Amino acid sequence: MKRFIAFIAIALLPLGAAAHGPSPQKVEKSVTIKAEPAKVWALVKDFGNMQKWHPAVTNTKLEKKGNDTFRTLTLKDGGTIYEKLRSIDEEGMQLKYEIVEGAIPVADYYSVMTVKPGPAAGESTVTWMGRFYRVYKLNPPIPAGQDDESALKAVNGIYDAGLANLKKVSEGQK
Amino acid sequence: MALPCWADGYAYITNQGSNDVSVIDLKNNRVLVNVPVGKSPVGVAASSKLSRVFISNVDGQSISVIDSTTHKMISETPIDGSPVGLVLSPDHTRLYVADWFEDRILELDTKNMALLRQVKVEKAPAGMAVSPDGKRLYVANRDSNDVAIIDTQDFHVSSRVAVGKHPFGIAIDEAGDWLYVVNVQENSLTAISLENNKTFTIAVGEHPYCAAVSPDGRVVYVSNTQGDSISVIDMQHMQVVKTIAVGGFPEGINYDKSTHQVYVANWFDNSVSVINALTHQLVATIPTGTQSRAFGQFIAEEAH
Asked: Is residue B3 part of a domain?
């Protein structure tokens, strides 16, 4: 998680879906939790309360603008991330959202979280997937901190820390 | 009715994540071989006439050439920019390359990969298509929300047509009457009637990327990356008549004339979905390399 917090130092980056490079990156992580899917899904789909399970988030502010729902995540080291909810599929236990702007070195970030029952009875498997681009929008040479590696490191850190703690919270430890 | 399966055709699927190209034998829908190419291959233009497949390596900043008789890479040409979109002239003597970051189109000689001419387009040129007579090159400008029409005689931009937000993929019908442009951030397709450049907008699925046209021009298929689906558009009524579920994040899409099947690369699932164009049913899923994109003309057909 230290690696993730290090990137908060980068000033608020406008990550509006205006422009990005041509090579999207992908991160996909999974965790098996010893808790019923309904209990885990209740935490995941609660778009306005990410601080309940993600250790880097101290506060979540939900807002509605017309038909759209947004949230502002306040991070432990002071940065913020502004995200837009894309969909909640109750039957498929799937949440989709995107980052509008925020203190992570990524562009055009889109993410899907899915909760599935199993593998064993009473267990759940959570998959967190992200598709995004690096920050730097021109040809190489790429400045440090704005390359694909920085983007991947940041997202991997967020997912690893998040899923590990989601497991703890769901299983009743914390 | 049995479908004629007499073509010795192959599909060349660029795998951005595994830096190789999966060669699919269309007779049995199996991967014959994975050909290593440059770094982050995305664009593809396959020529059965030349027995060559051209691949754009986005992060490698180069064009790989695959010999389709041996299925081996025979050259890698550096490009001083970020080549993404590729398209061949109708006679396959010219390869047009869209340089995403430098906002220009390069014209290469397919015999020796020499750079012949270049033209500036604005901004972030992505997908391309060529008129059947080779005289006009159409380019989707992703960041200026328009299509540039390039006159290939003197290689200059002769006109621009405004389309929707963030156009990426582009396709032209066989007759050269209609151009189809996919607007990623508007969830729509712009159909341009090329005789007068009149535009029509058709709503499709979520975050669409690419399009393919049936040989008779009646049906257009659009890949919806965030909907994990294909929108099937009836062009006589200009509306979606079916949505077919495919793999995760479908992107590059081509219509295979010999078997009447539609092939689409699934970036997230690392696979290719195959759709029967007569029944619009999913008939096969082929595992390929990682982060498959297949952006461009990836099916080369060699009819007997």
From this structure: no
C-alpha R_g of chain B = 17
Question: In whole angstroms, what is the distance from residue B220 CA to residue B226 CA?
Answer: 19
Answer positive or negative: Cα dihedral of A150, A153, A154, A156. positive
The residue range of the domain holding B41 is 10-300
Per-residue pLDDT tens digits for A117-162: 999 999 999 999 999 999 998 888 899 999 999 999 999 999 999 9
For residue B272, is it within any domain? yes
Looking at CA atoms only, how far is residue B178 from chain A in angstroms? 26
Record: contact A86-B226, CB cut-off 8 A: yes
- Structurally, chain B folds into a number of domains equal to 1
Give the domains, in start order, of chain A with CATH numbers. 2-170 (3.30.530.20)
Count contacts between A and B (CB, < 8 Å). Answer: 43
Identity (one letter) of the amino acid at B216?
A: D
Nearest by CB to B81, from A17, A137, A139: name it. A139
List, in sequence order, the alpha helices (H) in A21-65: 37-45
Stated pTM of the model: 0.91
Give yes or no for B122 touching A (CB within 8 A). no
